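Q&A log
Question type: sequence-to-structure
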Amino acid sequence: MPVPIIDLFAGPGGLGEGFASLKGHKQQPFFEIGLSIEKDEVAHRTLTLRAVFRRLRGTKSIRHYYSYIRGEIDERTFREIPAVASAFEHAAKEARCLELGKSDESSIDEEIQAALKGQKTWVLIGGPPCQAYSLAGRSRRVNDKSFHKDEKHFLYKEYLRIIRVHRPTIFVMENVKGLLSSKHSGDSMFEKIIADLSSPGEGLEYEIRSFTKCGDGESLKPSDYIIQAEDYGIPQSRHRVILLGVRKGEGVPQQQLLIRKSKPATVRQAIDELPRIRSRLSRGDSLEAWRKAVQSTPAYIKGWGVGMESEMIEATRAFAASATSITTGGAFIPRIYKRPKKPTELQQWLHDRSLGGVCQHEARAHMASDLARYLFSATFAHLNDYFPRLDIFPPKLLPDHINARVVSESDTIPFRDRFRVQCRNEPATTIVAHIAKDGHYYIHYDPSQCRSLTVREAARLQTFPDNYFFAGNRTEQYTQVGNAVPPLLANKLAKIVRSLLNEMNRRKRRLGNDHVNSKPMDSSRRRVTEQAQVPLLAETD
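Response status: OK
Response body:
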């Protein structure tokens, strides 16, 4: 029987996806999401659809899911198919749209108990909202006198309450790196959270461990809890605090640690084989108008006055000439999947041959002046392997904004990295929810496409499988992707949790055998011996 998972503050389900995808004995799921809770209605719809996918996967009815996300059938037709209707009925119990801290606690407790089905061994996962801890959030509210009273500082207490009441065997809690330096009324929030999680209730204690360093809460430094995703095969420099809580008294030894990769996965490896598309113009878009805007870039570089001016003019002119993509993408682009001879770990995780194409790969619209900035930036990065900050931009390409201008020699440009190219041979910068507002920080490295990243490209950098479908409009899809935990990283965390649970079961079996062997053989002893010899779920993928 799979180990139940309860997922709090689930977002679109990145953390849960990593756990639910892990296999055990005979390729059966090792973990099963019993309940996922998310307050955002659109993210909840994504969670629900993914629960339907898991229910249909492995059956003939999975073809209906693919037909739906390809746009071949509408949602109403999809839901009316009997097998799909049954899957939605199950998903409605698994994925719940509730707000922790405001929804009725007793009802939530009842749903958790129902989801656990009496199993004593289970895992709690989730990441309380991070706005109050993030460095960006704190900088935006530096003059906000009510910030220290923000209830988001204490949403982790909802997570803590569920630990105290329901006593998970193991918990995994994720948050932003800014948590380590966050203070409330002068006190360290991280120290308080560690203390609370270590002793959540009378007679209940947890060791707070790191996934990357040996030790416990007493021997580890705060920085030891940071996981730098790019070190572990994720094509993105995403640094997050992730805590591993192990209930004391279970006799669980020090767990395995995450294994570092010798080379980081790059942006190019993640998105290069996706269909080439062009961006759109926000006003008066047409292929001719788009090409005219792109081809105007060299004129903006003239008069730059730096040594590589001529080289950049020629390079941007060449890339503008090669900007021949006709399509701007779409909700679904059919294509034949070609399996590489030696697929990488990332490719194996992302690709799905049954999908028959690419979902949610549609370019945004941009102003004509921004297209020139995108082409300049991407060309500069192509030639130099790093992106140009605003303080070295040609004057004609600087945005007409006070934050992009230097008035005197003592001034500096506040947001120098506003037009940031995701360099092809490096991991991406952190994909965050801000990507929903504009694409300036997420420019595609291919100058001839002259655009920002699509939802699918952002999702790939976050390691969402290609068959993962995000509900809502495009802005809402970007927001969900940016708020998520990378599923492939979550899958690696799940393997460590699996090994802990299996070792715990091995110890219980050994204790059971020792107890049985010390007594005369009778019928009851025989039954206990047989039970103790039940094999563990194999640690296979």
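Response note: Confidence is low (pLDDT under 50) at residues 138-142, 406-411, 525-537.
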